[in-house]
Amino acid sequence: MTSEVRVPTLGESVTEATVATWFKKPGDSVAVDEMLCELETDKVTVEVPSPVAGTLADIVAAEGETVGVDALLANISEGDAAPAKSEAPKAVDAGAEDVKPRDAADDVDVMVPTLGESVSEATVSTWFKTVGDHVEADEMLCELETDKVSVEVPAPTSGTLTQIIAEEGSTVEANGKLAVISQSEGGSASKPADDTTEPKAGGQVPAPGNAPSGDVEDAPSAKKAMAEAGISRDQVTGTGRDGRVMKEDVAKAVAAGKNASKPAAAAPRAPSAPQDAAREERVKMTRLRQTIAKRLKDSQNTAAMLTTYNEVDMTEIMALRNEYKDLFLKKHGVKLGFMSFFTKACIHALNEVPEVNAEIDGTDVVYKNYVNMGIAAGTPTGLVVPVVKDAQAMSFADIEKEIGELGAKARDGKLSMAEMQGGTFTISNGGVYGSLMSSPILNPPQSGILGMHKIQDRPMAINGQVVIRPMMYLALSYDHRIVDGKGAVTFLVRVKEALEDPRRLLMDL
């Protein structure tokens, strides 16, 4: 009996996809729900599981082909069914019949944890353990990467990691199955069904590390490690499926000094000359970077974005900060920075120009009677915007403490989904990187974002005299659909006035 493998529903308004990767080839044995191939659309990556257990008879849509919804991808013959994943794995080497199968009742599934509101899938970034390793309860097994945060997956129990179902680089859905841990002391670990140490069709076992003649997608963590170590793909011996390079392979190559000089162990991945290959490197974007790119482009395509500029004399703020910073630190246990002043100044201006703190919902404008201030922060993995909730009700000290805590979490990749949602206005400080002038991009669905820049001494005309003052350019990008030019300019002027004379904040002027 033959079962058809067809393209699943791809999502609203998505009608076609490209076949990116086949994980199986004709003749391979497959189990129910085992991943067969991966499809790419203009929005998401979709994995196609096997509907039945059996043998992959033929592949109808090859890699690189474009297919529509419900199109035929492959056929599976159910006559020679593969064992279910929960059964005892078969040993590869001679004498396998002497291995005592473990009790399936002792198996504990490692599942994808809850990823957060509106997040339905993640990419397996790094496995910290390999099949056969002993693990303790709550020990970190792997790390998942979503379009917003990184999530560590702990072991639900102590035992032996007997099976890794979702390899590095694969996409998994919320509550999907990642691996299996056996609590039985005598449980035998099994490599994944497509591991290179298991016989392929025809009974031949390829030597570990031999790269295939085709192009194989290496683990994303391995690509990153190779880039950081400054070594090329040909200098690393891959031990993953079909010669796929894993993160640990890169570590071994670096430790052995293979980056000095090592002959290529495989056919070139591209027809270009070796000297050309060293000039370029292709690394797949992380999910976070893909989401940043998509959201910023969507913002440009959706909002009628315009930017207005002004400059602020930072003399009074700097003098006030220098005068009270020691007392502030002693009393509140946190340093007095510039961000609390800018946050307070923006809140003051938003009260006068509420449309900058609003958003468009269909044909309605939603005005916010509170300020959830987004503070854009650069991290090693990309830009994130943690949110200071109800900032209008916070003191200078409360704001500084919250910004400090959120900033530390952002750098460590520990921000939760809740801490990055619900912002109504955003402040971006490019000045910390030396930026003198820029036009920030809106963070949708917000209608305004303030760009801070470098404080630079410049000659200014004050009361008919040329004096040197610490000046900063300010930039307000806004959605012209609901914010008029007059409102935008008024907002920026109010921020400037509050910063140049901080007493106005106390007097609500």
From TrEMBL:
Residues 241-251 have a biased composition (Basic and acidic residues). SUPFAM superfamilies: CoA-dependent acyltransferases, Peripheral subunit-binding domain of 2-oxo acid dehydrogenase complex, Single hybrid motif. CDD domains: lipoyl_domain. One of its GO terms (molecular function) is dihydrolipoyllysine-residue succinyltransferase activity. Residues 2-77, 107-182 form the Lipoyl-binding domain. Residues 253-276 have a biased composition (Low complexity). GO terms for biological process: L-lysine catabolic process to acetyl-CoA via saccharopine; tricarboxylic acid cycle. Its EC number is 2.3.1.61. InterPro entries: 2-oxoacid_dehydrogenase, 2-oxoacid_DH_actylTfrase, Biotin_lipoyl, CAT-like_dom_sf, E3-bd_dom_sf, PSBD, Single_hybrid_motif, SucB. Residues 217-254 form the Peripheral subunit-binding (PSBD) domain. Keywords: Acyltransferase, Lipoyl, Transferase, Tricarboxylic acid cycle. It catalyses: N(6)-[(R)-dihydrolipoyl]-L-lysyl-[protein] + succinyl-CoA = N(6)-[(R)-S(8)-succinyldihydrolipoyl]-L-lysyl-[protein] + CoA. Pathway: Amino-acid degradation; L-lysine degradation via saccharopine pathway; glutaryl-CoA from L-lysine: step 6/6. GO terms for cellular component: cytosol; oxoglutarate dehydrogenase complex. It comes from the Bacteria. Residues 80-100, 183-281 are annotated as: Disordered. Its cofactor is (R)-lipoate. Forms a 24-polypeptide structural core with octahedral symmetry. Part of the 2-oxoglutarate dehydrogenase (OGDH) complex composed of E1 (2-oxoglutarate dehydrogenase), E2 (dihydrolipoamide succinyltransferase) and E3 (dihydrolipoamide dehydrogenase); the complex contains multiple copies of the three enzymatic components (E1, E2 and E3). Belongs to the 2-oxoacid dehydrogenase family. E2 component of the 2-oxoglutarate dehydrogenase (OGDH) complex which catalyzes the second step in the conversion of 2-oxoglutarate to succinyl-CoA and CO(2). This is Dihydrolipoyllysine-residue succinyltransferase component of 2-oxoglutarate dehydrogenase complex. It comes from Sulfitobacter pontiacus.
